[in-house]
Write a structure and sequence with these properties.
By secondary structure, this protein is α/β, with parallel strands linked by helices. The chain has two domains: about 130 residues, ATPase, nucleotide binding domain (Nucleotidyltransferase, domain 5, 2-Layer Sandwich); about 160 residues, ATPase, nucleotide binding domain (Nucleotidyltransferase, domain 5, 2-Layer Sandwich). About 45% of the residues lie in helices and about 20% in strands. It has a five-stranded mixed beta sheet, sandwiched between helices. It has a five-stranded mixed beta sheet with strand order 8-7-6-9-10, sandwiched between helices. Helix 2 runs parallel beside helix 3, helix 4 crosses helix 11 and helix 6 packs parallel to helix 8. It is globular, with a radius of gyration of 20 Å. Bound molecules: adenosine-5'-triphosphate (ATP), magnesium ion and fe (iii) ion (FE). The site of magnesium ion (MG) has 4 residues, from loops.
């Protein structure tokens, strides 16, 4: 079964073709350079840019795979959460293709896309497992017992982990997105400063990252000329330590022996290293998406759509963009 999926929830336009869960083509065009000068994503510009490039990406994916549109069995697109104008571009293109070629259409929850990106590297992964969803907008520990439902175990009370990386990167005068920049800077430094790891009481699976950001800000004000690399390494250590400790405690407490990492922050090398270390100590298996499929992409949307397609769960053509789509609905 060949699925063509489009992702356009934020500032990446992405198109992928996946056959039975196997990625044939995955193209991502980022608008980061365009939004950079405004200090954030400008929704109106984002949707226009999606519209400008999406056709070209579809054609490029067809060329790369040597397939024709008639050979695609299902068209899928992210239906939320995200920027409404941006979501509508991918949705409209996928629905238009489905109508004209008389094929089913499947709308996908972007967050389930991040979770199912794990199947690209581990097709054998089966529920139940714990998910640490760590992206630009989400930081949640989830228990996934069924293929299409998750139960919230813990979540951030303020900033998401990716947001913390982005904000601390800005404080350090590093670029955007902050995660990869901090990771790179940290390689040249040592985690010699101790930044807060809040909510450490046993059994508390919530996170808080806004205090860390403030504490880095004050530290920089008090210590002008301090090594950016050492501060980056110390901040990264604090974020990763909180994430890994709580996720493994939650898994152990719920007697679940598998943890899947999802979202942009799951690309972080230190997070992977610490998780693998702790996994071998505690007899838990850990799973990660391919590094380049942790941040937004369409392959993860196609793989998630495949889970629905296998069960013949197609979406009506009246499917609308849902900017605040929650994890309650796949
Ligand atoms: P959401 O999926 O919650 O709607 P999003 O789509 O913007 O948000 P993603 O694309 O999943 O988020 O992830 C982007 C975030 O991941 C950014 O905050 C970025 O800094 C972070 N990130 C990317 N790579 C790394 C890395 N190597 N280390 C740490 N953080 C990273
Ligand atoms: Mg993005
Ligand atoms: Fe995302």
């Amino acid at each position: 079964m060949k699925i063509l999926a489009i992702e356009s929830s934020c500032d990446e336009t992405a198109v992928a073709i996946v056959e039975d869960g196997h990625v044939l083509s995955s193209l991502v065009s980022s608008q980061i350079d365009i939004h950079k000068k405004y200090g954030g994503v400008v929704p109106e510009i984002a949707s226009r840019k999606h519209l400008e490039i999406v056709d070209r990406l579809v054609l490029q994916a067809m060329e790369e795979t040597d397939l024709t549109l008639e050979e695609i069995d299902i068209f899928a697109a992210t239906m939320g959460p995200g920027l409404v104008g941006s979501l509508l571009i991918g949705l409209s293109v996928a629905k238009g293709l489905a109508i004209s070629l008389n094929r089913p259409f499947i709308g996908v929850n972007h967050l389930y896309g991040h979770v199912y990106a794990n199947l690209i590297s581990y097709p054998e992964l089966r529920q139940p497992f714990i998910v640490l969803l760590v992206s630009g907008g989400h930081t949640e520990i989830l228990l996934m017992e069924e293929w299409n439902t998750v139960e919230m175990v813990g979540k951030t009370r303020d900033d998401a982990a990716g947001e913390a990386f982005d904000k601390i990167s800005r404080l350090l005068g590093l670029g955007y997105p902050g995660g990869p920049e901090i990771e790179k800077a940290a390689r040249g430094g040592s985690p010699i400063y101790s930044f807060p790891r809040p909510l450490q009481e046993k059994g508390n699976y919530d996170f808080s990252f806004s205090g860390l950001k403030t504490s880095v800000l004050y530290f920089l004000q008090r210590n002008p000329g301090v090594s950016v690399e050492d501060v980056a390494a110390s901040a990264q250590e604090a974020i990763v330590d909180s994430l890994v400790t709580k996720t493994f405690d939650a898994a152990q407490n719920l007697a679940v022996d598998k943890i899947a990492f999802a979202g942009g922050v799951a690309a972080n090398f230190l997070l992977r290293e610490r998780a693998i270390e702790m996994a071998s100590k505690r007899g838990i298996r850990v799973f990660f998406p391919p590094i380049d499929m942790c941040t937004d992409n369409a392959a993860m949307i196609a793989v998630a759509a495949y889970e629905k397609a296998k069960r013949r769960l197609y979406s009506p053509l009246s499917t609308n963009a849902v900017p605040y789509l929650s994890l309650d609905v796949f």
